[in-house]
């Protein structure tokens, strides 16, 4: 009827939405349209748009650059005025001219959306809402997606608060008159409904927030009206129930009229809320933008809490249910690639679990369980909280404590620890015990620090009602217990979790100290008993021996607990005598090293025990070596086992302890020499002897680099140098691998001491670089002889540098990247052609972003690349056309240089010839790969197929026919380059030449006639002669001038070095140590 004819005009979005299209328009029930004051529909209004400064409402406006702010947007943004006074001023302007005031309000919402346009008064009366929104859309800055609600910074954060407060205060101040005039609210709701349906995110976001806050303010008004209605109804009924003589009929009439007005106002407010809810909420609660959805769901919760009688029913609860009903989606979001999303999803699932344990299936829970092993710590910690609430929280602490006392247990956590062990075993990720402990550390710390309960389960027999732990469960419990000890003592996450060591707060530091004292006092007494029980089990013993490194060793002397120290040393000695497993022996060695620290008073006691043990093992080793060498080929398994077992123990100790005064090197040298001469030494003994000798050499190097004089250096310095020299002669590549492995070991030890953030200017790093420089000098001046060994050394160094990625993400350098600075010391030993190969191999490990980084942490990579690029682009064959050959150095078959000159060119270009063989594959006249044949067939060839008599024997053909040579690393890298170039060069070559280019070989032999398999060369003379004969009409190949003299000068060592001198094979003396 007439009531339905008066109401809120629809925006374009409302007219297109089927849910809103047929809704009833607002109007006061019982009022006729003819009695209402005529008003304009918002859809009949029109707008005009200007940019920047201009006139709004027909008067000049300031944008805030000078003078006082005059627009609502500027006032609210600055927030300098009380919001109530701002709203009161607007109400006064509305009473004077409501169109101009509404235009201010419309421009307020437009500008709050980040739009630069301004609605003008002359356009307000002529354009419809759809045109308003369309023209406002055109005024957006397309270059920026930011708008006030999303801009960072405290000013814009405050703006959001001021924006919401303005809307709330506006409704509160207008609730008694203006909101019922059927003009202001109709216009505002119509505008916000249209903006919320816009494709522009800024309009949609801002208008939805405004509409939801407007709705919240109206709910508050409706609640107040409801309260007033209830009070008026009670007053009316009380007055009506009075006797006729005391009843005041006028008061009844007033109460009745007041109740009627309140009801009309209530209906009017409900119509407004209905318009907002159906026109905006039902569409935006499922918006594609999460922030918009969150605004809707947050506000409907406020309405339910504020006015539960009206909103806490199925008509509104269903929207919350529809948002949350997809449990599978929520669980799957715990695996979201955005870690922040995953963390919030896990927390939501945890809240669901708190509300109802039956809400999640076992499968749902298992999907969250495994996230405790995530490398991203916030995700893992959130999953740990979920796991704690599901499995490890005590439901009835008092009953559990009473049960533990009846069973004679000191702690009620026994069952929970058993459950933790079962969970760890069932997860089948046993190498990640540290991750599991770290995930549960914040939520289950009381359980994880109950070391008394853990040792009780391991040492004592199960009481009635308890099951005995299986061997597998005992191993898992010991591993978990050691991880909890580490976490408590170090107070930081394990490697791979977190961003490195951070500075602890005073509270955290105090907790760390207390925990360390607690675990020390407990395990000083418990550890010997645990070792005694499990001394036959290598896995358990290796884990238990990790515990002493976390002790506060001062407790031994301060608490007068030396007898427990003696018990520990006795058990460690028994373990050493019982086991030959490497991990167990290394754990024992490390424990002795820790207990022998000079800063503790127990050092002397432990040093005596250690020396006694080494003395006995050394005597046993020397005796068993004598027996083995005497028996020679008649040695039985017992003789071999006696030597091997003792040598394994001594090698493990030599890794962490300086045992040079026991002269282990001499016995190991005798074993190795006998093995070489007789050829019957068991491989395991040879390996252990080499390892022990390796440690002896390293200890000597440590003393030298630290500047500590050693009386043993004069005795064994020559032996060490001779060993390196002989090793280099036997196998240059293995010698190079040994050198780089030594440097890697020193670098790893430095990382363990200082953490991933190395100080590259420290003396320790400089010491490693200095050692690398001295190692580099051992390769001598003849780069051709050592080219494969040096290249292999670089290959291993590059792989080590990029072996472990930074847990903080790919934008941070790999953990070992600083090792490239050490590796740079060997770059000068690469010939220029091989620098290209090594540089190409380095680029395989680099991402695009790495090559662009210039921060200090990336300097090792920059420095190493520069060392490879220096001189790396100069050695190439210059191929010019026939027309340019007239001015170049032309050598044809009619004008060949004398033989002796060609030989000099061979010598001068020997460093570039191997690379040239590959480079020519991309130019006309490339060499064809020689056919591979056996040595016997090659020797029986006719004379025309033999190499040129002037060329030297060996090298390339020896290389390609020798199975030891075919898989060299440089060969593999060059073959990859050849295969790539073949695709672009060979077809062209074949089309230009039907005759193959004859290949000859040129061999390089060392002074002692030892074949150098690393040298992959070709005969420059024969090659160039045939190439000129074949292609003299089409191309000229200019060899680069000799650089041997210059390069040798560059590589000449400092002969004035005061260090000891080592004699190179070629006769040059160079400093080494």
UniProtKB/TrEMBL annotation:
Protein name (database record): Cohesin subunit SA
Low complexity compositional bias, start-end: 878-890
Pfam families linked to this entry: HEAT_SCC3-SA, SCD, STAG
Function summary: Component of cohesin complex, a complex required for the cohesion of sister chromatids after DNA replication. The cohesin complex apparently forms a large proteinaceous ring within which sister chromatids can be trapped. At anaphase, the complex is cleaved and dissociates from chromatin, allowing sister chromatids to segregate.
Biased composition (Basic residues): 22-40, 891-902
Coiled-coil residue spans: 245-275
Subunit annotation: Part of the cohesin complex which is composed of a heterodimer between a SMC1 protein (SMC1A or SMC1B) and SMC3, which are attached via their hinge domain, and RAD21 which link them at their heads, and one STAG protein.
Occurrences of domain SCD (ranges): 281-382
Subcellular location: Nucleus; Chromosome; Chromosome, Centromere
SUPFAM superfamilies: ARM repeat
Signal peptide: none
Region (Disordered): 1-64, 870-914, 942-961
Alphabetized GO MF terms: chromatin binding
GO BP annotations listed: cell division; chromosome segregation; sister chromatid cohesion
GO CC annotation, single: chromosome, centromeric region
Family: Belongs to the SCC3 family.
Superkingdom per UniProt: Eukaryota
InterPro entries xref list: ARM-type_fold (IPR016024), Cohesin_Scc3/SA (IPR039662), HEAT_SCC3-SA (IPR056396), SCD (IPR020839), STAG (IPR013721)
Keywords, alphabetical: Cell cycle, Cell division, Chromosome, Chromosome partition, Coiled coil, Nucleus
């Amino acid at each position: 009827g007439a009531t339905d004819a008066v109401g809120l005009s629809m925006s374009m979005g409302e007219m297109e939405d089927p849910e809103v299209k047929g809704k009833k328009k607002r109007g006061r029930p019982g009022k006729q349209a003819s009695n209402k004051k005529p008003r304009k529909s918002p859809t009949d209004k029109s707008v005009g748009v200007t940019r920047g400064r201009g006139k709004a409402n027909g008067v000049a406006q300031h944008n805030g650059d000078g003078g006082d702010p005059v627009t609502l947007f500027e006032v609210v943004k600055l927030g300098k005025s009380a919001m109530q006074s701002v709203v009161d001023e607007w109400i006064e302007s509305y009473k004077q001219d409501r169109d101009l005031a509404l235009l201010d309000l419309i421009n307020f919402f437009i500008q709050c959306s980040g739009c630069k346009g301004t609605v003008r008064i002359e356009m307000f009366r002529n354009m419809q809402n759809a045109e308003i929104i369309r023209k406002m859309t055109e005024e957006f800055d397309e270059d920026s997606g930011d708008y006030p609600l999303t801009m960072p910074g405290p000013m814009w954060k405050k703006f959001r608060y001021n924006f919401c407060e303005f809307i709330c205060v506006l409704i509160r101040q207008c609730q008694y008159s203006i909101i019922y005039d059927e003009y202001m609210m109709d216009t505002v709701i119509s505008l916000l409904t249209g903006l919320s349906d816009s494709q522009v995110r800024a309009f949609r976001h801002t208008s939805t927030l405004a509409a939801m806050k407007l709705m919240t303010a109206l709910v508050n008004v409706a609640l107040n009206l409801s309260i007033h209605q209830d009070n008026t109804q009670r007053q009316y009924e009380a007055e009506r129930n009075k006797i006729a003589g005391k009843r005041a009929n006028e008061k009844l009439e007033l109460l009745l009229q007041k109740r009627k007005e309140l009801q009309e106002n209530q209906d009017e407010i409900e119509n407004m809320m209905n318009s907002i809810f159906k026109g905006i909420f039902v569409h935006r609660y499922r918006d594609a933008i999460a922030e918009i959805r969150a605004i809707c769901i947050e506000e409907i919760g406020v309405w339910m809490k504020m006015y539960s009688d009206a909103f806490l029913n199925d008509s509104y609860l269903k929207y919350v249910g529809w948002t949350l009903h997809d449990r599978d989606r929520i669980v799957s979001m715990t695996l979201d690639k955005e870690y922040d999303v995953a963390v919030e999803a896990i927390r939501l699932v945890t809240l669901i679990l708190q509300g109802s344990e039956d809400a999640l299936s076992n499968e749902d829970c298992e999907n969250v369980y495994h996230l405790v092993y995530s490398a991203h710590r916030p995700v893992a910690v959130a999953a740990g909280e979920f796991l704690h609430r599901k499995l490890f929280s005590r439901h009835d602490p008092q009953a559990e404590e009473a049960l533990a006392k009846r069973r004679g247990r000191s702690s009620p956590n026994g069952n929970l620890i058993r459950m933790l062990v079962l969970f760890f075993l069932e997860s089948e990720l046993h190498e990640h015990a540290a991750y599991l402990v770290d995930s549960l550390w914040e939520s289950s710390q009381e359980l994880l620090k109950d070391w008394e309960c853990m040792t009780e389960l391991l040492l004592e027999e199960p009481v009635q009602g308890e099951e005995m732990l299986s061997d597998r469960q005992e191993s898992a419990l010991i591993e978990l217990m050691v991880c909890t000890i580490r976490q408590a003592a170090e107070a930081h996450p394990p490697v791979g979790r977190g961003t490195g060591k951070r500075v602890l707060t005073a509270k955290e530091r105090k907790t760390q100290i207390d925990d360390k004292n607690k675990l020390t006092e407990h395990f000083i007494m418990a550890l010997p008993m645990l070792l005694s029980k499990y001394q036959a089990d290598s896995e358990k013993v290796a884990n238990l021996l990790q515990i002493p490194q976390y002790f506060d060793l001062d407790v031994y002397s301060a608490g007068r607990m030396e007898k427990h120290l003696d018990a520990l040393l006795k058990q460690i000695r028994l373990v050493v005598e019982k086991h030959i497993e490497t991990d167990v022996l290394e754990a024992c060695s490390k424990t002795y090293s820790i207990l022998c620290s000079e800063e503790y008073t127990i050092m002397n006691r432990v040093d005596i025990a250690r020396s006694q043990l080494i003395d006995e093992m050394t005597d046993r080793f020397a005796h068993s070596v004598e027996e083995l060498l005497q028996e020679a080929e008649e040695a039985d398994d017992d003789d071999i086992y006696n030597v091997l077992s003792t040598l394994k123990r001594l090698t493990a100790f030599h890794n962490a302890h300086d045992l040079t005064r026991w002269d282990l090197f001499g016995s190991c040298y005798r074993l190795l020499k006998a093995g070489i001469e007789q050829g019957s030494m068991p491989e395991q003994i040879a390996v252990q002897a080499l390892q022990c000798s390796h440690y002896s050499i390293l200890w000597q190097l440590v003393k030298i680099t630290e500047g500590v004089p050693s009386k043993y250096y004069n005795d064994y310095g020559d032996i060490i140098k001779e060993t390196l020299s002989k090793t280099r002669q036997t196998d240059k590549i293995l010698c190079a691998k040994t050198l780089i492995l030594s440097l890697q070991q020193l670098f790893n030890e430095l990382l363990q001491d200082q953490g991933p953030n190395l100080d590259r200017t420290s003396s320790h790093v400089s010491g490693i670089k200095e050692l690398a420089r001295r190692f580099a000098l051992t390769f001598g001046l003849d780069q051709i002889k050592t080219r494969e060994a040096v290249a292999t050394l670089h290959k291993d160094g590059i792989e080590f540098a990029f072996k472990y990625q930074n847990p903080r993400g790919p934008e941070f350098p790999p953990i070992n990247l600083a090792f490239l600075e050490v590796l740079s010391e060997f770059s000068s030993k690469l010939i220029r052609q091989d620098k290209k190969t090594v540089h190409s191999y380095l680029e395989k490990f680099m991402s695009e972003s790495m090559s662009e980084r210039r921060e200090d942490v990336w300097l090792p990579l920059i420095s190493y690349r520069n060392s490879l690029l220096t001189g790396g682009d100069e050695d190439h064959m210059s191929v010019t056309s026939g027309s340019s050959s007239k001015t170049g150095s032309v050598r044809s078959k009619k004008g060949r240089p004398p033989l002796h000159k060609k030989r000099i060119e061979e010598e001068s270009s020997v460093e570039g010839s191997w690379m040239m063989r590959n480079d020519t594959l991309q130019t006309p006249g490339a060499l064809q790969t020689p056919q591979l044949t056996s040595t016997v067939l090659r020797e029986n060839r006719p004379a025309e197929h033999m190499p040129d008599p002037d060329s030297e024997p060996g090298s390339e053909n020896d290389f390609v026919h020798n199975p030891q040579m075919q898989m060299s690393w440089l060969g593999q890298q060059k073959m990859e380059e050849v295969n790539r170039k073949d695709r672009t060069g060979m077809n062209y070559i074949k089309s230009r030449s039907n005759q193959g280019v004859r290949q000859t070989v040129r061999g390089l032999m060392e002074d002692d006639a030892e074949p150098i398999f690393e040298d992959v060369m070709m005969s420059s003379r024969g090659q160039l002669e045939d190439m000129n004969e074949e292609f003299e009409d089409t191309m000229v190949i200019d060899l680069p001038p000799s650089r041997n003299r210059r390069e040798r000068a560059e590589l000449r060592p400092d002969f004035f070095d005061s260090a000891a001198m080592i004699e190179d094979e070629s006769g040059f003396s160079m400093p080494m140590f």
